[in-house]
């Protein structure tokens, strides 16, 4: 599962959007500088962080603060919701109705049984996108926010020795379709193929400190 990731303020625009939107990139940089060194974690009853999310807006893209995990009846979901299995979306593509891209410079997983944290990156400071499905939810204070869940798939062989699953990666060439195309089986299948190609460039190493 993916339960933490990072956003380095020194990022380079590598594999996020097909047409780099200056406002989105500047918004990301400002957020990352203000939260420099912070690991992005699921939102909940105690940790009330909202994380930057790339969402479609009137044919364009915009950056929106979002709640990681789903809200049900004004409370964090009692079922696991920070991750969604790609296999479930293949079986029920209607759950792809609303989608987003999570900007990141790397995610973290613990390698067992050693219990050593590892960071997965596309290269030092390279910015890339992870697939997310979204829905609206009401916070305990009654405010409506976008909630998101990271789409997860089986990890390729060169990463599976750390963890057997990984986020579905959305390369820049697929970013527009992922955000705007019809929610069908073809879309998630295309995303999995594109993710596998990008995942071949992902490397992993022990994290310098616990994320």
Describe what you observe in this structure.
The chain is 21% helix and 38% strand. The protein contains five helices and 15 strands. The chain has helices at residues 22-34, 86-91, 157-160, 175-180, 185-199; strands at 5-6, 12-15, 51-57, 60-68, 71-72, 75-76, 83-85, 99-104, 106-111, 116-121, 126-138, 144-154, 165-167, 169-170, 203-206. The relative contact order is 0.20. By secondary structure, it is an alpha+beta fold. The protein has one domain (5-206): hypothetical protein yedk fold.
Map the helices and strands.
Blueprint: E1 5-6, E2 12-15, H1 22-34, E3 51-57, E4 60-68, E5 71-72, E6 75-76, E7 83-85, H2 86-91, E8 99-104, E9 106-111, E10 116-121, E11 126-138, E12 144-154, H3 157-160, E13 165-167, E14 169-170, H4 175-180, H5 185-199, E15 203-206
Parallel strand pairs: 2-11, 4-12, 7-12
Antiparallel strand pairs: 1-9, 3-4, 5-6, 8-11, 9-10, 10-15, 11-12, 11-14, 12-13
């Amino acid at each position: 599962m993916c339960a933490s990731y990072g956003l380095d303020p020194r990022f380079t625009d590598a594999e996020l959007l097909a047409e780099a939107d200056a406002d989105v990139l500047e918004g990301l940089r400002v957020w990352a500088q203000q939260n420099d060194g912070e690991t992005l974690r699921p939102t909940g009853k105690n940790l009330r962080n909202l994380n930057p999310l790339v969402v479609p807006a009137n044919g364009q893209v915009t950056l929106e603060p979002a709640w990681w995990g789903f809200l049900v009846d004004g409370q964090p979901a009692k079922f696991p919701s920070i991750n969604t299995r790609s296999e479930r979306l293949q079986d029920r593509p209607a759950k792809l109705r609303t989608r987003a891209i999570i900007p990141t410079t790397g995610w973290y997983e613990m390698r067992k049984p050693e219990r050593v944290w590892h960071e997965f990156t596309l290269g030092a400071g390279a910015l890339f996108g992870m697939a997310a499905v979204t829905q609206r939810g009401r916070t305990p204070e009654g405010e409506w926010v976008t909630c998101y869940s990271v789409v997860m798939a089986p990890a390729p062989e060169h990463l599976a020795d750390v963890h057997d699953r990984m986020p579905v990666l959305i390369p820049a060439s697929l970013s527009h379709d992922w955000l705007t195309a019809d929610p069908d089986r073809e879309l998630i299948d295309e995303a999995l193929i594109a993710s596998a190609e990008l995942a071949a460039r992902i490397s992993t190493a022990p994290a310098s400190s616990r994320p």
